[in-house]
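Student: I would love a firmer grasp of how sequence relates to backbone shape in proteins. I am handing you a single protein, as its sequence and its fold in token form. I am told such tokens are a discrete way to write the fold. I hope you can help me see how the letters and the tokens relate. Take your time, and here it is.
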Amino acid sequence: MDIELFQFALPEALIAQTPSATRTGSRLMTLNRRTGEIGHRRFTDIVYFLQPGDTLVLNDSKVIPARLLGVKKHTGAKAELLLLRNLGSDRWEALARPAKRLKAGSVIEFGGGHAPLLTAIVEEDRPEGGKIVRFSYRGIFPEILDELGEMPLPPYIHERLQDKDRYQTVYARYEGSAAAPTAGLHFTQELLEEIAQAGIRIAYVTLHVGLGTFRPVSAGKIEEHKMHAEYYILNGETASILNDARKNGGRIVAVGTTSARTLETLGNLYGDSEFAPCAGWTDIFIYPGYKFTMVDALLTNFHLPKSTLLMLVSAFAGRTTVLQAYNEAIAQKYRFFSFGDAMFIY
């Protein structure tokens, strides 16, 4: 399938470049994937589109302050790391800038001037600017990272976050993501309580989001694209809730593409068998032609042209239907991307 089938023209003015509106005034487009009918609401109206017996599934992964700004030892040249995955023993997979100048053996220092709080040595190169680095430090690494690190905001966000929690969902629990599962940023605790009181069950999966999820597809044919693997966890409580939902015929509503990918990974893993607590790595790539086994409705933001996220949404609702909805969103001046507005597809 040609990547150009997922291209559309997006005015720069519609790219949400500030977090200020999320959780306070987001808009909600509703899309009936069978009829193509489109509606325009406020995000808080989502409760009216959920039904008693539905199960709302959210990704409770927490973003770490993964962006580290430092200097190259001996030269003092600026250097940057973006932590992607903890490999254990103080080794991390990371993106580096400037990647070409940070060869194996390079040493980067962070904080503290002549006595850096944190030091990284590049051990090996990975494709697309990736590195394997090993850290040395005194103290507790998460505390040092919290002190020195910045939230890894997308490049189109120009407003610096004074409050790191602004790039976290209100239900984030388990640290490990390099980017937020942004569809969940719209929820407040009060709205979640209202949803629960309406008879909708709320369940949590964990998928630690890597940057691979958000990278545009560079291959001309989408079948040639390879997703980066991400770590997921299914706990016993959620396994039981999902088993009940399938048994009783209730809808499973995924909040965001990360929850959807986790649910579909589980559906492919267990088939018709009952779910059980598990954890593992998934590189599932969902694009048109994929048959969903778990997700009955999807809440998602508006995504980049040619992105794997747009392809997943197109697989769920149909490429033509989704692009028509996107054109309507542009005409109605919906805000796009991480801090933008939302779409509920049912």
Q: What stands out?
A: The first strand starts at residue 27 and ends at 31. DSSP finds six helices and 17 strands in the chain. Helices lie at 141-148, 189-197, 236-248, 256-270, 308-317, 319-331. The two ends are 25 Å apart (CA to CA).
